[in-house]
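the two lines:
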Amino acid sequence: MSIKVRNLTKSFDGKNVLDNISFEVNDGETLAIVGFSGSGKSTVLKLICGLIEKDSGDIITSEGDVAMVFQYSALFDSLNVADNISFALRERRDLKNKYSEDELKKIVSQKLELVGLKGIERKFPSELSGGMQKRVSFARAIVTEPRTILYDEPTAGLDPISSTLIEDYIVRLQQETNAASIVVTHQMSTITRTANKLIMLYNGKIVFAGTPEEMLRQDNEYTKQFVTASLDGPMHMLS
Amino acid sequence: MRELIDFLTTFGAIVENGLLTLKYIVTFQINFRELMDQCVRFGISSLPITLSIVGMTSLIVTSQVASEMVKQGGGNFVGLLISILIVREVGAIMSGFAIISMIGSSLASEIATMRVTEQIDAVRVLKVDPIRYLFVPRVLSGIIMMPIIVVIASAFGIIAGGVTTAMTTELGYRAYFDSVWLGIYMKDLGVCLLKSLCFGGTIALISCACGYQATGGAKGVGLATTKAVVWSFVAIVIWDMIFAIAFFF
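prediction for all of em together
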């Protein structure tokens, strides 16, 4: 079991953002988390990777690193692509001095090749398009061979073709690493092309859990409203 | 009440981050590549503005007191007065103000931008301590570079005083510089260096800590930068007062 979340609860300023949610993701699986903006999707990722503290519940992940791809890439703009990718290998106390400069160059080159961006090592993030930045952030995330990969709206702000490319790389990384992955997204194409299973959050609770195919069948009133993008239904925009 | 909470939160963050930074410095967990970059940024890029401010302050003061002193028969002590003034006070405090506006604001906005664009979250997810990676080289570069900047700026200020004296009075360079040496005491030099070391570390620490606390978007970056500048100004004036009381009362 790579990610096991049990009875997870988190509140901000007295408001329950996550209310007793539970789910599991196995190695090699990708779970999509969908829901309204502000429904707590990104909070789940931040709790799993330890950026914020949970109020109660359990989060168990397999041994090994948890990597996260941020919504807007979060590349270090003062470092070039090579230094961004090798950042953890250079700066982490347990990895520092483990690799020679030649080895680091080789690793960076391999990771860039994996995301289809060979030869841009010396470019800075500001010189790259949004899609390229996202792929560099994929390469940075997998440099420590993580067992868990979290994607926070990986196709946000990208054109449809770049989105398709990003979705392809999510699938490819999944096959290469066999990690357990969670993708937070609003896009139907990202859900259907990358995920094996899915949960929908509303008001801090899981209102649907199943596969993307089951969601598309619209048997559930929540998924029906989400898929048809309707204003009528059980879910109301949080004011 | 909100202002008080904000004040205490900021003060607590500066103390907490300062202690962590000190721990990493004492245990020698220093990224030397980053330290070199920050030293260049702290020293080289701020030098022209620091020299200008200290030089012009010296020019302003000298132009007002030199002719008056010569008139009153104290011409032989113009250099002494200016050197005491610059070594004890103007060199360090004016350099401090220049560094705050040039480097402190830049450090605060850089780290605040990293905060609001999730770059600091990315550092944490990659299991690197942001205090060790961001604070240590910046604070250490302030501690190392500030005394060097103050020494150069003070020397420049004294020379600017000499030029001003020669231009505004009949007193020559020789008379001015002969009395300069009478006003430079080892104790003053030591206090000046110690003071500038404290100024440099404090400016860098406050700027980093204010940037690190930033929330929201562009507005958050602006607020963090303003807070860093205001806190740094107040902090170095307080340091200056402490040194004046401790060494010259």
